[in-house]
Amino acid sequence: MKKLYSLMLAGLVLAAPGAAMAMDSAALLAHPDQYRVIYAGEDEVIYADMDTVRGIQTMDFPNSIENMHFKMYVESYKDKVNAMDFAKDNLVTQIREFDAGLYVNKNEKSYKMELKLDGVYDARGAAIPSKDQEETGDALKIRAKAKDLYMNLYRLERVHQAEAAKAAAAAAQDASAPAEPAASAAPAAE
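^ thats the sequence. predicted structure below, dont judge the formating
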């Protein structure tokens, strides 16, 4: 019996991180500082998780080769939407989560993208069984947008770094400021 409980506990511990990683539409919209839109089209919006963006550049001027890796979410919308879909907030068909890599050679003006599908979810975060995205052609459509995605992500990363530096400077200034004396409670009675 103890072995059964141990096995069930181990299964629960292993299953919990997978359940916590599911993405839903509300989370993408609720945290615009973390999930930034890097592309918006007629039938999909592509978000980058700014907390996961990692990049390297060459040292030559003007930094001719750059590689960026990040977590990417592609939110797909219904083709034909009616008033009831808007009323019930039933617009999103699926959210695809990718590990993405953008590879740019600025001298040759070439932009390449690698995608690894991590999961497919509905608008509320429930996992959807899905075919490999290569078979459906979705990955090819996204790779065709590599230059636009790179340009937008590059600029957003600079903004994200500036905001982080500003927040760190404000925190440092607050920490170094002397504490203000407490205001006197009430004037002394004569």
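Confidence is low (pLDDT under 50) at residues 1-20.
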